[in-house]
């Protein structure tokens, strides 16, 4: 079951829901939704998934991809009524809802930097697939039948996921064919908005209907 950020916000305001954040600890520490419980997808264990009588338990991540994956894991382990929030943190913030940004005096410079929510596909590949499964660049390259350098460059964010690579990764990890392309697209779009968004707003006027 998928619900939007506004519905989840209403549930939380009425003490009807517990929010479970499946992003990584580093992302959670930068910014999170108040009251959310952290269960990173890289260490996600359905046996430890919380059950709160009388409350809906809602999964969320940065943009909705990882929470959907966590939901499928729970369904495969016999859970029902799994709820995930579409759009993740990105949609939550676009809707104007509150988030928490921990402040540490020695991290002031870091907090002044842009806070990106959409990791590159290579980072998700490493943190949420290769590390939990004990895969290194050579073993994954052999499994995908691609050069090791292609995997190393992808992990180092020197190259983007191609359509062919997305298909190979999808075949190996049993994901949707466009899953890896979509992760890369979300990452690229977020950075493009940050870099060019204001300039484009000034340079381009929307075409008005006749």
Structural class: alpha/beta
Question: What is the count of structural domains?
Answer: 2
Strand line-up across the major sheet = 1-5-4-2-3
Q: What kind of sheet is the major sheet? A: 5 strands, parallel
Total helix count?
10
CATH homology group of the largest domain: Rhodanese-like domain
What is the CA-based Rg, rounded? Answer: 19 Å
Tell me the strand percentage band.
5-15%
Kindly report the average pLDDT value: 86
Characterization of the model:
It contains 10 helices and 5 strands; from the N terminus they run E-H-E-H-E-E-H-E-H-H-H-H-H-H-H. It is of the alpha/beta class and 210 residues long. The protein folds into 2 domains: 2-106, Rhodanese-like domain (Oxidized Rhodanese, domain 1), CATH 3.40.250; 121-203, Orthogonal Bundle (434 Repressor (Amino-terminal Domain)), CATH 1.10.260. Strands 1-5-4-2-3 form a 5-stranded parallel β-sheet.
């Amino acid at each position: 079951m998928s619900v939007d950020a506004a519905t989840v916000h209403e549930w939380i305001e009425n003490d009807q829901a517990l929010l479970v954040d499946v992003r990584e600890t580093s992302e959670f520490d930068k910014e999170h939704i108040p009251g959310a419980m952290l269960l990173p997808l890289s260490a996600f264990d359905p046996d430890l998934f919380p059950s709160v009588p009388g409350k809906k338990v809602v999964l969320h991540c940065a943009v909705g991809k990882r929470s959907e994956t966590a939901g499928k894991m729970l369904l495969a382990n016999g859970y029902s009524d799994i709820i995930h929030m579409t759009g993740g943190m990105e949609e939550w913030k676009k809707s104007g809802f509150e988030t928490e940004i921990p402040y540490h005096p020695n991290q002031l410079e870091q907090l002044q930097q842009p806070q990106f929510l959409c990791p590159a596909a290579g980072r998700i590949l490493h943190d949420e697939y290769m590390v939990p499964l004990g895969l290194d660049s050579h073993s994954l390259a052999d499994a995908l039948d691609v050069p090791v350098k292609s995997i190393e460059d992808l992990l180092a964010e020197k190259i983007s996921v191609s359509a062919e690579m997305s298909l190979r990764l999808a075949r190996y990890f049993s994901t949707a064919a466009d899953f890896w392309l979509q992760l890369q697209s979300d990452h690229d779009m977020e950075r493009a908005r940050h870099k060019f968004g204001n300039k484009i707003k000034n340079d381009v006027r929307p075409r008005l209907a006749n």
